[in-house]
Amino acid sequence: MLSALTTQILVMMYIMIFAAAIRLRYTQPDAPRAYKIPGGNYGMWIVAGMGLIGSVFALFIGFVPPTGISHWPTPIYIGAMLGAIVICSVPPFIIEKIKKPSWIEAHPDEVLLDLDESKTAFQLADDEAALVAATNGRPQNGPAVVGAGPELIKKG
After folding, report:
1. Which among 15, 152, 155, 17 has a CA at the least distance from the CA of 85?
2. pLDDT of 121-152, one tens digit each?
3. Closest to 57 in 3D by CA, of 123, 113, 11, 19
4. Is 145 helix (H, G, I), strand (E, B) or coil?
5. I need a labelling partner for 68 at 20 to 30 A (CA). Which of 21, 49, 89, 124 fits?
């Protein structure tokens, strides 16, 4: 039942992701994105709508008890799954509602934030890749960019 519960919670996350993709196409249509689904709003509805329909179908299928649990009647299995989903899904929403401003931690190390503000993280990664290529992979004494993706950190 634990693996079925994990799958159900993951499928619920996919439902929220597809719904959020559709919503963001309307609320922030001009936001820069790494990839934009072609076809405008219709394309987004087709792609995210298919994912949404598939995810909702998978959510319903997840409530069908597996054959290995023959000692649990179907209504009890469905009730147990619903109860477990609520128990696992509700606490983050409660914490979000009751959080205090003092719980928000400033960045733990201000030195890690010493990035060149005029360059994006991807430009910094390109600069580091060019430096490594130019020096045949030998490290230099200057500052190095460490990390992956947009959370690159400059240390030196």
Report:
1. 15
2. 556 566 556 655 555 555 555 544 444 444 44
3. 11
4. strand
5. 89
